[in-house]
Structures are given as C-alpha cells and as structure tokens.
Amino acid sequence: MEMCNDKETLDTIVEEANKHTSQGKVADYIPALSLANPDTLSVAIFQNNNVCTTSGDINEKFTLQSISKVLSLAVALMDLGEEEVFSRVGKEPTGDPFNSIIKLETHSPSKPLNPMINAGALVVTSMIEGRTIDEKLERLLSFIQELTGNPSITVNEDVAKSEFDTAYLNRSLCYFMKQHGVIIDNVETLLELYTKQCAIEVNCEDLAKIGYVIANDGKDVDTNRPIIPLHIARILKTFMVTCGMYNASGEFAIKVGIPAKSGVSGGIMAAVPHGVGIGIYGPSLDDKGNSIAGMKVLEALSERYNLSIF
Amino acid sequence: MEMCNDKETLDTIVEEANKHTSQGKVADYIPALSLANPDTLSVAIFQNNNVCTTSGDINEKFTLQSISKVLSLAVALMDLGEEEVFSRVGKEPTGDPFNSIIKLETHSPSKPLNPMINAGALVVTSMIEGRTIDEKLERLLSFIQELTGNPSITVNEDVAKSEFDTAYLNRSLCYFMKQHGVIIDNVETLLELYTKQCAIEVNCEDLAKIGYVIANDGKDVDTNRPIIPLHIARILKTFMVTCGMYNASGEFAIKVGIPAKSGVSGGIMAAVPHGVGIGIYGPSLDDKGNSIAGMKVLEALSERYNLSIF
Amino acid sequence: MEMCNDKETLDTIVEEANKHTSQGKVADYIPALSLANPDTLSVAIFQNNNVCTTSGDINEKFTLQSISKVLSLAVALMDLGEEEVFSRVGKEPTGDPFNSIIKLETHSPSKPLNPMINAGALVVTSMIEGRTIDEKLERLLSFIQELTGNPSITVNEDVAKSEFDTAYLNRSLCYFMKQHGVIIDNVETLLELYTKQCAIEVNCEDLAKIGYVIANDGKDVDTNRPIIPLHIARILKTFMVTCGMYNASGEFAIKVGIPAKSGVSGGIMAAVPHGVGIGIYGPSLDDKGNSIAGMKVLEALSERYNLSIF
Amino acid sequence: MEMCNDKETLDTIVEEANKHTSQGKVADYIPALSLANPDTLSVAIFQNNNVCTTSGDINEKFTLQSISKVLSLAVALMDLGEEEVFSRVGKEPTGDPFNSIIKLETHSPSKPLNPMINAGALVVTSMIEGRTIDEKLERLLSFIQELTGNPSITVNEDVAKSEFDTAYLNRSLCYFMKQHGVIIDNVETLLELYTKQCAIEVNCEDLAKIGYVIANDGKDVDTNRPIIPLHIARILKTFMVTCGMYNASGEFAIKVGIPAKSGVSGGIMAAVPHGVGIGIYGPSLDDKGNSIAGMKVLEALSERYNLSIF
After folding, report:
1. Which of A51, C112, C145, D202 could form a disulfide with C120 if both were Cys (CB 3.0 to 4.6 A apart)?
2. Fold of A66-198
3. What pLDDT is recorded for position C222?
4. Residue of C96, C118, C168, C185 to mutate, interface with D, max D Cβ within 10 Å
5. b (16+ CB within 10 A) / e for A266-285
6. With an 8 Å Cβ cutoff, is B303 touching chain C?
7. Where does substrate bind (chains A, B, C, D) (predicted)?
8. Cα of A28 to nearest chain B Cα, Å
C-alpha cells in the first residue's frame, strides 16, 4: 500500500478540505465544545516504522466523545469476552439516530441494537471492570495510554462536568434500560463514568496511533506486542464501518470505505486495515455530527491512495 | 335518574362481580401493592342528600395511583388556567400504552398527548403550585380533603418510598422531557412529589364523594359550594371517558359509558354526569391494569340504571 | 332540553362562525372537493315533531367522506353483530393520524385500532353484506335512505372515480391488512366500494336527520320505529366522541362535548344524546381536517344550549 | 491470497456445514420455494484462471430472490448514475426488518433507507431502463447473462406468478411510496417486473461467477473486460457488507467479514474483494432468512483462508 508520507501533499489535501468548514458548525449543546475554533483542522497519519506525517496544529487537544465508544468496547470485550458483551448489546446497524429511544421500547428484549449508539455505549461502559468509578476509569485510561504510548492522556474534568450536568437524554436512556434490567448499575454513577470517558482528551497524533493499532490487528506499533486481540480488533473495525459515522455510515462506506469513528468534538479516528492509522481534528460538523473537513480529508486520501476496503 | 340505593341490590351486584376476581391478578411491580387481597371488593355509591350506599369492607384503604392524575389535573387547571396547562400537555387520546415513550420522540414538540398517560401526568404534577415539595403536596392534599370532607387523608409513605425507589420508567420519561424543555423542574424532586401523589390513601367512600363532586359540575355535596369550576369538572369527565381506563377506555365507554378513572391499586372513581359518584376497590386487575370486579360492578350498574352518557 | 328553533338565532350563530372560514382551506387532494366554495356554510338542526331549523343554502350537496364510516359501521354491526365486527377492528382511540400505517406493523395481530381511522373503516366496509359491490352499496344506500327519509340519495360517481384513481394510501393500508389476513376481499373491489361509500351525496338536512336518529337511540323520527338497535346507536355515539373529529377529537370533546363525525368534504354530523341531530356543511377545513366554521357553530350551540354530555 | 481450490477440502467443509440444516427451515410463504429439499447444499468457488471448485449438486437451480437486488442496483447505477439513483433511495443500513413500512411513514421524505430492503429494491427496479416490462427484464437478464457467461439464464415463470399473486406486502409498500411520489410507475406493472426479477433462476456456479466479477472491481473473468464500472462494483460490495444479510448483516460482518447477499431461496452470493467469488445454495433458512448451512460454509472459509476485509 502506497501512502501519503510527505507533509507537502498532506498540507495540500488539508488546505483543500479546510475550504468546507464554513458549511458546518461547531457542536453547541455542550458549552466547552461550543468554544472550539471552527476553522481548525489538524491531521496525523501514522505508518509503520513510526513514521507520522502531520498537518495543522497537532498539539491542539480535543475530547474523544463518541470515539471513546470504540475503546470502551475494546476493554469490555477483552475483560468479559464476546459472549457476555453481546448478550447485552446487539451487533446490527440501525437507521435510527444515535440518541433514539424508540427501539428500546419496540424491541423485546430492550437490548440496544449496537455499541455505537448511545444506549449501547452506555451498556458497554457499565461493563468496564472495576469496583469504583475511579478504578473503571483507570482501566480505560491505562488502555488508551498504552495504545497511544502517551501516559499524559487524561480526562478534561470541565467538559465531563458540563456534559454530566446536562446529560438528560442519556439519563432517560439509562433509566429506560434499568427498568428493563439491561443496565444494573446506579445510573448517576454510570453517567459520571460515561461523561468522563467521553471527555478523555487527546490530540490527532494520539488518534492516529490508536487507529494504527486497530488497523494492524491490535499490535503495538513499536514492539509488535499485541495490545488488542486480533478478533477484537476486527470487531472494532466492523462496527466502525457499519455504524461509525452516525447516520452517514452507509454513505461514508461507499465514498471512503475506511473503518472510522467520529465524535461531536470534531475528531475522527480511522483505521485502514493492515495499513495506516489516521487521526483528525476539525470541529466544524455537518448535520449528521461528523467533521466536515475531516470527511473531506479522508475522502481525498482514500481516492488518492486507493484505501477503500471494498 | 333512578339509582341503586338499597344495600341488598348492591350486595347482589358485588357478589356477582366478585366471581371474576380469579381471572386477574394483583399488581406485583410495587411490593406494597402485591400484598393486597385479590378477593376484596368494596363499593360505595354517593347520591344527593348525603346518601351513600355501600357494600364490602368500606374501611379498607388503598392508594390512588393513577386516579390521582385526575385530581392533580384539577389543581393545575384551577391554579394556572386551561391555556397554560394545555400548552404543556395535549388533549388527545392515544392508542399507546400509558407508560410509552415513543410519541415523545416522534412528535414535535415532544409534548405528552394527554394528562392521563404517565408522561402527561408528570408534566401536570410539575405544574402544581408551591415553593417546596411539602407545599405542593399540601396543595393537593388539602384539595382532596376538601373534596371528600375527610381531613385525615394523607400519603402512605411506605408505598411512596417503594415506588420512588423503582420508578425507573418514570425517571426515563422525565429526563426525556427535561431534555426537550417540557419539564423544567429537578427530576428527582418531581418524582418524589409524583410518587407521593400516587400514594395518597383513600377508601371507596372517599372516592365516591370525589366522583360525586366531579359528576355534579364541581359542587360540594353538602353545601352546594363550588369546589371545582364547572368547566374544569367537565374537562375531567371528558378525559375520564376518552382515556380514563388505560388502553380499554374505548371498550369501557361502549360497554359502560360512565366517566371513570382507574388505578393499579385496584381503585376506580366514577362520575355519572349530573348523577352519582361511585368508588370501588378491587385489587385483582385485568391485563390492561383495570380492576376486574370493579369493571363488572360498573357494567352491571350502568345496564340496570341506564347510566351511559351515550 | 331547550334548543335553538328559531332561524334568526341560528342565522346569527352561522354568520359569526362564518368569519373564521378564511383561516382554513378546502381539501385539495381530490379534484372534485377542491372546487368547493370555502365561504359556504349551511346548518340544519333536526328536533322532535319534525321541526328542522336551518340556515344557509341547505340544498347544497356534498359527499359524506369520513362521515360514512359511522354508517357503514352501523350496517356491519346490524348485519354481523358486535362480536364478529370487533374481532376484526378494535375499539380504542389512537393518537396516530387517521391514515397512519405504523400501528398495523407494530401491533400484533395487525388489527386496526378503531373503525374511524381509514384502516378500520376499510375493514368495516369489507364486512357489509352482499354478493356483489352493487348489492353491498345498495345495502348501505338503502340504510341511509331509510335514515334520512330521502330516497334520492345516491353516489356522486365523479367524486368516487376521482378518489378511486388516487387512493394509493388506502390501497397500501388494504394490501398490508390483506397480507395479515385482516382483509380477505379483493382489494380493488373493496376500494371501489369504499370510495363509492365516501362519495355518497347528501345535504345538511339529511345529515341532521341521521344525527337525530342516532341521538335518539336509533328510532325513526316520524314513526318512532327503531332503525338502529339502541345498543348500536350507543356504540356509534361513543366512537363519535372518542374518535369522531380526527386528531382533534379530545379537544372537541372538551370544548363542545357533542358526539360528532366530520369528513374532509367539510360535512359534520352531530348527535346530541336524547336531543337533536345537527348537519353542517362548511368546506373550509382546519389543519386537522375538520370544518372550521362547522366547529365554531357546534361550539356556540353547545355553550348556548348546554349540550355537552359531560 | 491463498484460497481453497481442492474439491476434497471443500467437500469436508460442506459436509460439516450440512449438519446444521435441521436447525432451520425452508421458506414456506411461496409454494414453489417450500418444495425445496432442506438438506441440499451446493457450493462453487470461482477463482482466477477460470478455476471453479465445487461441491454438491451444482446443477441444482434456484431463484435469485433478494440476491437480485444487487444486480438491479448495478443496472440502475450504470444506466442512470449515482446521483439520480440515490436521490430516490438512501444509502444507510437499518435495524428494521427488510419488509418494514414504518420508516416510510416516519421519515420525510418517505425515501427508503437503502436498496437492500424491499421498499428500496422496488424503487430501484422502477428505475431499470426500458419502455416495456419485457424490455426492462431483458435489460436485467442480458446483464446477468453477461456476468455469468450463461446465456440460458431466464425467469422461472411459475415462481414469478406465485410470488406476484401473493405479493400483498410489496404492493402495500409500493402504493405507500406511490402516494408520496417515490414510485411513479404503475404498481401492478412494477410488481410484475419485480417478481420476475426475483424469480430469475441460476445455479451456484452462476452465483460464484457474479461474485467474482463484483469482487474484482467489475471485470469480466476471462477477458478482463469491465462489465461493471469499478466505483459501482465498490458500491455493491459496500451494501452487501452493511445490509446484505438481512437483520444479521452486522453479526455476519463480524463473524465472516465477506461482502455477501442472501435470498430466501437459500442462495448466497459472496464477493471477496480482489479475490474469489462464491455461490452457495442451501434452502434451509435461519430465523433471519439466511441459509443456515451457507453461513457456516462462509464462516469456515473466512476463518481458514483469512478472508475477512476487516
């Protein structure tokens, strides 16, 4: 696989993509997110031999938001196994919005359709091992630190608190599932953990490294040591394709064809199977909640370097 | 209107109705309710001149549960007026279950369809006036004490606590509505008030008196003094017909034709327009959540005394 | 019951109501209906002793449309009995639109919720007795002729044809129910019958007479002869209250409190229990599909003569 | 890519898979399908150099059913272009059943979510070019004959007629979409074409060849001549992954990871990107409508030869 490894080409692609930011807008439902600069765009491409090509201000930090759903799922699968995890959350994509509650009522049992919609992600987070919130969060953080090789990664407590205070819809989803025995935990405790998980702060280089490990069957970039078992890395890529980009997943799969997961902070983590990992930060979102410029970058890279898995 | 006023006839009707209790079962989702004796059946018919014909153990107490929705609606309408109340809750019957959340997502704005389903009742309770829970509860209790002339009516705190602890579905409804600005209050505080409202304890004579006042355009039985304005009493009767008996309201309207509201405790409060008030307690419920024997009593009375409004 | 029987008062009420026609618009989805004059308003009130007070051009004809649902239900109930009819159509009001298909898929069995929504009305029409369309239509027509004492009532074939050709949504409902065995007939034949039923042409005096018979327990106005059995007349009034005015039935019950059924032609047939029958034609519709001026007339009459059943 | 090319290994895999047929059952809603032998299992793997490894009775014919949705989509995309086709059908997977009508009512505009559910496939078929049914069918058949190199492929008229006569649900979907302008054609004509499309008869070798062309960017096996443009072949593979296996697509993507499309006849057509094409016939279906033994074969092949795209 030939791949972009010169900064100049990447800069050109990024510059081109950045022209589209004005068509979207920054997420405004969380105060902390609404302060982001809509014209920012940073990209990192992580390849073998520790080569990382970047463009834009790669030191700019942002919170994982929905990207964290892939990582909590990895942890839950590693700790509890496929059977246990998928007894409580499904594997099927859905045409409903990521925060919809309808299927929980119409489906019996009221098991969320997949781990990438909020209901499913909340169930997955409730399966992270640990006796206390701190232990559970530590479990997740140390996994992410290992993936990125960046021990300084931590939670942005302001964002976490801001989200926790206004997480009414997620509370609604949780209590609905608690009524039906799908969630057993105390809901407020679970939400505290979940909002902290969403508020874990990274930069686009961190995301690129995470993508690289997932792309390469879960192996550590430097040492070739397995961090995620192969079959779990494959599961993650599958969900990234079928439901990684909210309600534009199908269109994205056609246009770009790279497993990817976006968050409302404007981050995208992409994993080209047996190839590169890509991290993007561009907070101007389209109406589906995906980074407008980020999608353009991935589209350009996929076309130019023939990265589609299809 | 000729009406049953001899105990003997009523005893016969009650005895006949009581044969059906074994077809149902006592509500089991609240521990306190599950202890009820399924074979109990008590009935009180309140007529003019303070005549009250009764059958069964009329001293047996039970909690209002959903019957309280009629009374909180009365209070909200009296305190805030029709316009304000119906800007936040609709007037239309629904074919969905009383605890359904779907319409809150599919309808825009996410205003509950009517005040007799849980979502609507929760909004109504949030409109009871008072600066604290105690004040709001006092507002409701004093209204019920005035309606019944029974100053000893109060909350069964055990039932209230038991319901509060397990009210996950109502929490889910509340947080969903809070997300959409339909509920503004603190949810936990609102639920405390709501579960206390549902746990107000009465006997069937109390219910009969309440029904009598509503039946007779809101006037106090003894003094003819208006307790509820005429147009509000009419609104209450209307909701009792179109949505008073859960998802059997339509069938009940055809078969019995008396405005009535049931609760999962097994109580039914019925108001024959410009006629009698009827209170019933029979905790064995059918699959829709209505008192099996209670429905039979009302069916027999309606047929015998031609009470249908249609 | 005191009731309006002088033309002058009625003219005043009609004149007042007619000021609201500009807020609505004539149904435009059927060419024949779209030609109606939006400012027309005619009203007839039928009382005992053959007194009929009228206002406006009472010779103006219009098609029954959804008002026919009440009459086909009467015929099916008389011919097949309650048990058979309600084994195939429900009795419960619904918050869904009259032409919604969703509940047919989510409910099991896929039995329509009530006979006033299109799905339910189509099932009811499929139960009208007769070996051929002509026989079935004749059955219905002769019933309506008997009710009105007007042997000239017949189908407006142009309207029928126009509706038949564009009845895609009703076809969709029919085929869905045929899939699930709720409709057994040939769908095209059923739709031909149904669109003819909807296109039966009357004037407001005819409607008033129909309302009068239903109001008075099914008895013929002149001879006191029963045309509709008492318990069926009661069923009709019940459905008219719980689902007679589309998705404004609940609000109408509160505001007016008279059993009534409207059609998109702008007709309303109302039946004050044990009182008068009212026929109205005012083709300017509100956004729920009810005659704007017609609703105002009924509101004024109900208030002035205290006609609410509640 | 190493791949199975010895009959012995394939026979072993097939034998093993065949043990599971008793857990499923043959589709019974179409008489012609219900006659299939549930224990039949035939598999063909088409590789480069015209190598085709087979197992079982590869001469047994079966109808394409839903597999045809991939081929009609290919034709529509080639004839009308992406923009036109996707203006009338979406690209997103759905958690709803393949024959669900709900989203057509709740979504606005009522555009089907994707071309693999029935509603979407019907819209796609309505876009096949031709002035008459015969011309349109000929367009599709000649495309399939070219793909397979088998000029004898044609429609099983008995199956087509049997499906046409009972296609009530598809009629319902069509008329619903016609109401909303998504389908413009005459519905009966469209259904005749659609049921003929579904009744096109192939054997598993034909399917393997089709899969091979799609797998290899649309190029003809022998001549390397492009039959399907590369970007359209990619679109087909994408839909096969996100929605090819009914409501088990997500699980199949995880477990097997090969683009595949199944039909209720028991056929599966699979396309390993830049690798082999696989055709399977095993009419015993699981509760999602997929060939039980066919899924097992694909699972075994994917595992053994590492065929997952993820």
Report:
1. C112
2. Probable Glutaminase Ybgj; Chain: A, domain 2 (1.10.1500)
3. 79
4. C168
5. bbbbbbbbebbbbbbbbbbb
6. no
7. 66, 118, 163, 170, 194, 246, 264
8. 14
Q: Where in chain A is the domain with CATH 3.40.710.10?
A: 7-63+202-305
Q: Which amino acid type is present at position A173?
A: L
Per-position b or e across B288-301, b if 16+ CB within 10 A of its CB = bbbbbbbbbbbbbb
DSSP A248: G
Q: Which residues pair with A155 in a beta bridge?
A: A200
According to CATH, where is 3.40.710.10 located in chain D? Answer: 7-62+202-305
Mean pLDDT of the D281-296 span: 96
Predicted pLDDT at B265? 96
Which pLDDT score, from 0 to 100, does residue D1 have?
59
Q: Which residue has the tokens 């007939």?
A: C185
CB A44 within 8 A of CB A52: yes
Measured CA distances, B42 to B4, B139, D86 (Å) = 15, 28, 65
Q: Which residues fall within 8 angstroms of residue D203, CB to CB, at 6 or more apart?
A: D42, D44, D58, D59, D60, D61, D62, D279, D281
Percent of chain D with pLDDT over 90: 85
Which range, of A14-23, A209-218, C22-31, C181-190, averages the lowest pLDDT?
C22-31
Residue spans of beta strands (DSSP E) within chain D: 42-46, 52-55, 62-63, 201-202, 260-262, 267-271, 277-281
List CB contacts (< 8 A) between D103 and chain A. Answer: 95
Q: Which CATH architecture best describes the domain C7-63+202-303?
A: 3-Layer(aba) Sandwich (3.40)
* Record: fold of D7-62+202-305: Beta-lactamase (3.40.710)
Tell me which residue of C37, C43, C45, C124 sits closest to C85, measured CA to CA: C124
CA distances in angstroms from D232 to A247, A293, D80, D268, listed in the order given: 21, 25, 12, 20
The string of pLDDT tens digits covering residues D105-149 is 888 778 999 999 999 999 999 999 999 999 999 999 999 999 999
Q: Residue D172 and residue C168: Cβ atoms within 8 Å?
A: no
- The CATH code for residues A7-63+202-305 is 3.40.710.10
Tokens of C191: 């739709």
Measure CB to CB from residue D176 to each of C106, C172, C179 and give the nearest one. C172
Predicted model pTM: 0.95
Tens-place pLDDT, residues A262-278:
999 999 999 999 999 99
Positions of CATH 1.10.1500.10 in chain A: 66-198
Rounded Cα distance, D191 and C169, in Å = 17
Contact between residue D271 and residue D277 where contact means Cβ atoms under 8 Å apart: yes
**Burial class of residue B134 in the structure, from the number of CB atoms within 10 Å of its CB (0-12 exposed, 13-18 middle, 19+ buried):** exposed
- The end-to-end CA distance of chain A, in Å, is 15
Give burial (CB, 10 Å; 0-12/13-18/19+) of B75.
buried
Domain span(s) for CATH 3.40.710.10 in chain C: 7-63+202-303
The CA distance from B266 to C228, in Å, is 36
- Residue ranges, comma separated, of all CATH 3.40.710.10 domains in chain B are 7-62+203-304
From the list C284, C304, C306, the residue with the least C-alpha distance to C295 is C284
Single-letter amino acid, residue B305 = Y
Distances (CA, A) of B63 to B163, B279, C33, D66, D110: 12, 13, 54, 56, 47
Pairing of strands D267-271, D277-281: antiparallel
A290 lies within 8 A of chain D by CB: no
* Euclidean distance between CA atoms C43 and C281, whole angstroms: 7
Helices (H) and strands (E) in chain C, counts: 14, 7
User: Which residue, chain included where needed, has tokens 């296109």?
Assistant: C199
Chains that touch D (3 or more CB pairs under 8 A): A, C
**Is B264 a catalytic site residue?**
yes
The answer regarding whether domain B7-62+203-304 maps to CATH 3.40.50.720 reads no
Dist CA A254 CA D264 (whole Å): 26
